[in-house]
């Protein structure tokens, strides 16, 4: 900053000096030229120039410093006369011929001045007249002294500039030292302060210009030292207090550990108390509900029926509260486990709707369902818990909806190779929820509002349990609502794809192809539900929203072709019903257009219109609409025969079996024992009862039973011990199914039952339908004890069991046919599907064994076991079943998979044997031959 202005100023001054010097030299040259011209102009006025005059003038000029040569030349550049230093002819000729040489021209070292002799002046040289035209006098001068002057000026400029710069550098250096040296000292002092060294303050004498700054820094350092001293004191004091606190915390931790152990013990006591309480409460409830159902079948007067219905509903309500409390307790402790078994989605929905339909009909609400057609019917998961979530959300929607409808929609979010994510939405037209209510909606024991509009009873556990169950299904749950605009509860669930179910493009899709239908419903949502199913099944639909338009729209539709079916809602509009008008429309459709009719009505309307529809081609179907039931009714009305893939119902099979089934019932409670006995007798099943485990073992060793119903908690020998002793005394071929009767929530205890040798369980209170299903599963359809109705109707002495299962054979054709209901095509198809999947299954098992991945092993083995259940492959089924159970235990208990490696290798060997057996075998020809 200091040198730059000085350098610039020196350069400017030097430049000015050089310019002035140059102008001075140029002025000297001009003056010399003018002097020469003046001298010779004076002699030309004499009109006579002779040699003596030229000599005289030239001697005068040459005597002057700087003049070099004077000569007389002609136009061609020839020298006529010359004095002074010689000038070369070539140089003379080049100078003379230069166009710029008119008066004077200068080079680096010389200047040439040419003075033409005027006309009329006579020039005489050596008494010889040389004429008076074309002659010039050339004067050559040196520039040495001018060049020396120029160099002197340049040297002076350089010297002066160097001196000025040196002086400027000297003062700049000193000024810089005065500025920066104190700053370095201050910086060093600040660094010491920053390191906590406050014992040597910065001296103010170090920099006279920075004395105020140094004093301020020293004051700041003094304050920092004081703050540091205070901080150190505080740290020491805090450390001492912390040491005391840590000692206190350590004591508290010991106390908390003792309290935690006590809480764990108390939790175990609570769980045992809840389980025992459940057992003690469910036991009398079992008798109340069971005998109430039996009493309903007797003749009662209306008042008795009313009292009985009150008793029955109260008992069911008490049972629901007990179940909610137990489910919530298991969710809190993390002991609630989910099953993984076949799920028929639409059947689960229908069961949930059946449970809630009476409450909805009482409030005149419509329950609607819309299920995407591309969702498979057969999935894997926990149907009971899925139904429980749906039931809780439906019950909540009905509770807070007074008019309108409740819609259940099921859609597919995403789909993997072996899993599918479904989203369930329950939308109501109720009073809605504000933001604060939504935030605490899923809290336990919480009622949203204590006002009259929210006084609907309940424990406040339904939604909390639903959230806990959805979390365990690896799904999400939420609500969308605004006050006065209803609410939509939604949740997602990840279900497995059933590998044993036949894949299809869509459920029942295409079964009504080329069918034209009319659909009337005054409610848009109800109409959408019906048309969704009909269009999904391939039918074309004409929608009618106004009752008076039915006849007119039918006439228009019939002009383009035959209408095959009409689906009508019984109500003319949302609030009115006229059975006479309905009968008139039905007659018109039947008689004028030959269109069969399906009438949709609530139970109360069905009772009114059933007599009115006598003699018509109309079928009345109750709401809510069930997908399978609607499809069945439509097909019946259209005369379409759809092959049923479902098995015969348990009720029909048990009715055909009549009294040929013998069941042993074991229970220490007389009421429960009598109830089970009465329910079995109602189904025409022979039953023998005992009240303890020891008698059950002795009786089973002397008599043959098709099924044993075993209570768990009994004095002396409990049900688990009795089952273990029973299994130890029987062979595999004579294995009797044992089903646990328990008042506990048995889902999480299922592993204990299976390890004890039990096959299934029933939770009290036991219903007649549950007993029918158990008998159907473990008596009529069990491969180990399975008998056809004709065999069961034979006398006991002549009874012949199902085909003997040969465990060591890869394939048992008789067993395959037996499992396929003696249908060779079905047996061949099931076995073929299994054989095709075996190579991939073996590779997946080997990969999972290499990775020691228990979850993958469990999934693959479970799928293999499911496929073996419907094929006659006894050895593979036995191995996969045992491994399935062992892998489940390993996953639940966290044990390593290495101990199961020999069993897994045995399973792979069995798979390879079955693959080898299938090579070169034509299954169609094999099953075409009588296996007997």
Automatic annotation (TrEMBL):
Entries under Gene3D superfamilies matching the protein: 1.10.287.130, 3.40.50.2300, 6.10.340.10, Histidine kinase-like ATPase, C-terminal domain, HPT domain
EC nos: 2.7.13.3
Residues with Phosphohistidine modification: 862
GO molecular function, one term: ATP binding
Spans traversing the lipid bilayer: 6-25, 153-172
Catalysed reactions listed for this entry: ATP + protein L-histidine = ADP + protein N-phospho-L-histidine
GO cellular component: plasma membrane
Span of domain Histidine kinase: 276-497
Entry keywords, A to Z: ATP-binding, Cell membrane, Kinase, Membrane, Nucleotide-binding, Phosphoprotein, Transferase, Transmembrane, Transmembrane helix, Two-component regulatory system
Response regulatory domain: residues covered: 662-779
Record membrane topology: Multi-pass membrane protein
Xref: SUPFAM superfamilies: ATPase domain of HSP90 chaperone/DNA topoisomerase II/histidine kinase (SSF55874), CheY-like (SSF52172), Histidine-containing phosphotransfer domain, HPT domain (SSF47226), Homodimeric domain of signal transducing histidine kinase (SSF47384)
Subcellular locations according to the entry: Cell membrane
Domain HPt positions: 823-918
4-aspartylphosphate, modified sites: 711
Record-linked InterPro entries: CheY-like_superfamily, HATPase_C_sf, HATPase_dom, His_kinase_dom, HisK_dim/P_dom, HisK_dim/P_sf, HPT_dom_sf, Sig_transdc_His_kin-like_C
Pfam families found in the cross-reference section: HATPase_c, HisKA, Hpt, Response_reg
Protein's name according to its UniProt entry: histidine kinase
Taxonomic lineage: Bacteria, Pseudomonadati, Pseudomonadota, Gammaproteobacteria, Cellvibrionales
